[in-house]
Fold:
Amino acid sequence: MAEPQPAAIQEGAAEPHAPTGSAEDRKAAAALSSLDAPTQDDDAAGKKNVDSKALGEAMKGLSVKEHAGDEKKKVVKIEASDVSLLASELEIPKQKATDLLRASDGNVLQAISSFITP
Amino acid sequence: MPQPLPAKEGSLFRQLVKFYESKQHKKGIKAADQILKKHPNHGDTQAMKALILNSQGHGEEAFALCKLALKNDMKSHVCWHVYGLLWRSVKNYEEAVKAYKFALRIEPDSQNILRDLALLQCQIRDFDGYIESRKKILNARSQLRQNWTGLAIAYHLKGNYKEAIHILTTYEETLKQPPSKADLEHSEAVLYKNTIIAESGDVEGALTHLEGVMKANLDKTAVLELKAKYLQQLDRTEEAAKVYGALLDRNSDYRAYYDGLEKALGLDKSDAASIEKLTELYEGYASKNERSDAPRRIPLDFLKGDAFKAAADQYLRQMLNKGVPSTFPNIKALYADPDKKATIEELVLGYASEKAVANGSAEGETVPASRFEDSVLYFLAQHYTYVRSRNLEKAMEYIERLIEKDPKSVDYNQIKARIWKNYGDTQKAADTINHARELDLKDRYINTKCAKYQLRNNENDKALDTMSKFTRNEAVGGPLGDLHDMQCMWFLLEDGEAYLRRGNVALALKRFTSIADIFEVWQEDQFDFHSFSLRKGQIRAYIDMVRWEDHLRDHPFFTRAALSAVKLYLKLYDNPDIAQGRNEELDRLDPSERKKALKKLQREQEKAKKAEADRKAAAQAKATPKADDSDQKKEDTDPKGEKLLQTKEPLEVAMRFLTPLLELSPRNIEGQDLGFQVYLRREKPLLALKCILDTKDLDPEHPSVHKNAVLFRHHLNNLKEALPESVAEAIKQSFTSPPADADIAALKAANDDYIKEHSESPSHLQAAYDVRQQLDAASKPQNETDLQNVLQLDGIGFDQASAGIKLLYEWKSDANVVEAYREAAAKKFPQATRFLKK
Structure:
């Protein structure tokens, strides 16, 4: 038997609402919290005007296009020591330091000065 | 390995899930325990129990249990999913993403996990990942329109306009018949597509697309606004003017439409040639709509000379006759032009001397004559309070005349308080506005103003008491707790700044940190909207929100809190003793007295602590257990901010404020100055230099450029360790003034030149004296004398005078020197409370 899926584990709904007094308040709070929950007419609304055949075709068209746009990255030799120097001196993530160096063709001085000059 | 449950426990488990969803935590725990009694190592149940524990606020327990669950059942997607949710709840998004991905590997088709992962990726702006997840979601359920829109959003945010448009178009093409006219989701999606087309730079295409859909679209205003914008961008000005005309017929008080119309007609307010046509244009709109303000007020911006006088006369008379209270605030922007300021002053003074009888309104209505007279006096009182036209004595005279006529007016008393404030007399200002507040206890505006004035007068407790008249006082933490819940940031800021002035560093820090926390909450708040907006189909507003979140912390409140907090952390770093409750004033006492004072301080602290503990014990004894424990909010464990103050690494903590400040408000010079100071102390010369260069770029004449440049050179000259080669080289290239070979003598000489050059500017002089002090401690006596002489300059305001006192504290000057300075300042600003002898 497959385990039942915890169906409505809702992101963002985990925070409890403010303490509520009367039964009416609680009802209102419940209504509020269910605002974000998927309702059944989501599905129904989706179906009424849907041509499943056309959708099927459309989905195919979608997957064909995916392989088209691969760009080639510029090949630049970047020293690991330069990356860590920049990351620590400029307090930026290593990824950003690498990008910075790549943009300056691996030249540390140029990378630094492009970063610090306004 | 999966752990199947027998039928009875299986249904119990489903119940457990239901209980969690409906937030019946106690019942949920009970059900979980029931299952665990028979199957103590059932991973899924343990995970669910952990989830419930977490939402009850037992975070650590939850983590321990969830780890146990994972050990028992490594192959369960429920366990991994819960593990991810736990990480998410402590805002460790990287770990959460990892856990979700594990869960997905086990159960690739789970829509819930996929959705949670997607939302998280959007939250951390991992758009590549977001696109992938959105594609999977769409593959699983392509019949739902929102899944198509969701993928388009992902591409759009990534900047891939072409794909985004393609996705939306593909979906539209599958529709059998055009959606009904009332289909809001469709209408919004179409406009959303239109904005993407425009953003991709294809204005022509956007216009064509818009014209195809505009008839059926529900958001008429947006359609017209977009059309006008596109036409204007395409230089089809005549058509654009027509559309702006249509928009103005819908709303003739919206300035942006007038601006658009002017541009479309090729008119320019600053160009004398178009003034005539502009006048005609606005007269046309003014006559079309008698009650409309904009077409009457806007001409005052561009008219000059006699034409201005006539128009201003007409405008002012109408407003003052009606007794519009906001007349002055509406006019004061014109004071930037000295001629207009003079003209308005002349006009209104003329009204004041007119006989009241002469002012029957044009329509022949019977207006009480005194209304015009009162409005004129009220206008004049505000006129002489305003900074560009300040004459506080006259202002006081006018406001006194009004108060004599109507002593019960809240407005008049409020202006009186403002006059005292501008005198610098915070005490009288607070008293006066409190009197105004008492005239109308139900007026929340004046109540709020009153609290602010009390804070400016350093009366924190009184201000909180005033605020409590309008807060929910049964909230956890009382009025202050409610102000936190309501994110009442102005109060927290002013409260913090008042504590800072009083020398209560801990509480000040506490308040500034609260502000930073609130911004974190704002960032967190967007989470719900990643799914909510999609479901409701309000995509354009959602995109605006996502982009706004990216520069959230350029908000003025954050900037103010950050500036104060960073200053505080700098002080804390330079003088760690502050954390022990000592302050500069104590340092000035002689040793035996200081010892006594310190002991007294300690005794007081202990006493306060004991009282606090008693209060808590009493509160605990009184508190009855609440119905649902999950609703209880945690009490603040550090209400006084003492733990915050004890930080071992003040500069590292300061980065929480400084980084967003420099990144998002780079045009704030004070921020750059503080950035320099922090980076210099943290030995990050390149970043310190960046702050100097940025300041120079913003305002080359700003005193902090000179100060920081000299200090930076001085710092470089005295390095203990050599900098890495490339760093030194980069500094050599970008930092040339003062020159690299400038030794201490040359720096001193440069500074002396600077003093001569700026002998009339208080802020430049103060900066230069500070430099001289830091270069050469022996020059202190001269600096102190010179600093006091700055007070005699004409241009000095009391904020600059206060800055002098702060400098003296920084230099650790003698108590009698500070006292002499204070006395001199008090002589210069006799009304200012802050220079009074304590």
Observations:
- Confidence is low (pLDDT under 50) at residues 9-20, 38-47, 67-71 of chain A.
- The helical segments of chain A are 23-34, 40-48, 52-65, 80-90, 94-103, 108-116.
- Chain A touches chain B through 50 residues (CB under 8 Å).
- The first helix of chain A runs from residue 23 to 34.
